[in-house]
Amino acid sequence: VQLQASGGGLVQTGGSLRLSCVASENIFRINVMGWYRQAPGKQRELVTTITIGATTFYADSVKGRFTISRDIAKNTVSLQMNSLKPEDTAVYYCYGWKKEVGASWGQGTLVTVSS
Questions:
Q1: Computed from CA positions of residues 73, 75, 70, 78, in that sequence, does the dihedral angle turn out positive or negative?
Q2: Is 51 helix (H, G, I), strand (E, B) or coil?
Q3: Chain-wide mean pLDDT for the chain?
Q4: Torsion angle of alpha carbons 61, 106, 11, 63, nearest 10°?
């Protein structure tokens, strides 16, 4: 599975950004999709996931601020990020897990939140 992420940028504290991840195949064939992020000097951490059945998971740090969604027709999973904080600054990676092949990663998109 190939994943192409986009939508990062620079935003002020309290602002919003929307990330998108386009998959190379029908996302109903990908068991889990989601987003990880890696801040400077830190390990990559899970942000959110969505399953084929539309079950979602959010890290505590983003609950109530971030929303994952999908557009089946466009093979796209999006991440709406609201009320951004400086600690959300990171490279965000689109993630997909398919039972037959395991994990796939997008190229990463940088989100910078200025204080």
A1: negative
A2: strand
A3: 97
A4: -20
